[in-house]
Automatic annotation (TrEMBL):
The family this protein is said to belong to: Belongs to the glutaminase family.
Gene: glsA
GO molecular function: glutaminase activity
E.C. number: 3.5.1.2
Catalytic activity annotation: L-glutamine + H2O = L-glutamate + NH4(+)
UniProt cross-references to HAMAP family, sorted A to Z: Glutaminase
Top-level division of the source organism's lineage: Bacteria
Protein's organism: Mixta gaviniae
Keyword annotations from UniProtKB, A to Z: Acetylation, Hydrolase
Name of the protein: Glutaminase
Positions bound to substrate: 115, 166, 210, 217, 241, 293, 311
Subunit structure as annotated in this protein's UniProt entry: Homotetramer.
KW Transmembrane helix (keyword) present: no
Amino acid sequence: MPAAAAPSVPAARFSPFPSVTPRFFLLAVDEATTTPDHAAPLAHVTERSAVAELSNALLEEILHQVRPLTRQGKVADYIPALAQVEPDALGIAVLTHDGALYQAGDAEQRFSIQSISKVLSLTLAQTRYQEQEIWQRVGKEPSGQPFNSLVQLELERGKPRNPFINAGALVICDMLETRLTAPRQRMLEVVRQLCGEPSINYDRHVARSEFEHSARNAAIAWLMKSFGNFENDVPTVLQTYFHYCALSMSCVELARCFFYLANQGRPFGEAPPVLTVRQTRQVNALLITSGMYDGAGEFAWRVGMPAKSGVGGGIIAVIPGKMTLAVWSPGLDASGNSLAGTAALERLSERLGYSIF
């Protein structure tokens, strides 16, 4: 007979950006570089008959159910620093539209967010470039290929399919290197402000480990440069890219950071919009089609949320108008997505009855 669920602990509520002096917001929409937006609000999430209410106890129950999967996934080992992560780690955090924070497991333990950072670099580029400037250099289609593949890139003459595979993210970093004087520092400032946590930083050990084993990403960058789709010094852009991937954050911090994707481009609190409504829709659309590598279709089928994963084992997911979610379990499936993390989000979607479909 299953044990009775633990009493629900009241969700924490937090003041937005408690430790950051809001002198200005680094990602405030620049009217000179964004398209005026008069679009209608995001469509409401379809709510089926929910069988449970969101609570810390529910999250604990779900983690208990999926914990056996933590040992079935494979921790990324092509980056030696990531191979050292404890495979049993498992955490989840959910931030709702009204500021209620729910969490369970290792939700406050920081880890390398890896490709989740590609959403942040795209967001930063959207505030610095006109729409057509971005999409003439990188596409909007799913690749159907491994995230570090060169085959498709060669056939399509150096234009990456989307900004969430390595080639696309490298092009975005190249664009930021062109437009920003200190792209690594600017990214830190942005993330710290979105999370309200000034201690967030890069894991220098991970960044160095990635650079020392960067042959494939360097090959991708040089191939794009041969087609004229890369402007800056390749090693310099690679360093920026690896530092972005080496951002160290927790599930709680990720849920706060990406709140703007669930809130029509507005971060939690009173800060100005990060993106326009149109831009936010575009990012969420790309997350559905391309956010989970070549497992995006399977994830949409099972979970039904815009999401982005990283080989560090993290996944961020969005229910527009409702909540942001972040889960972490280092063991990966064949597509490079967290095995237990995906299962946890699937169970939570089923229990709450939430999906964008």
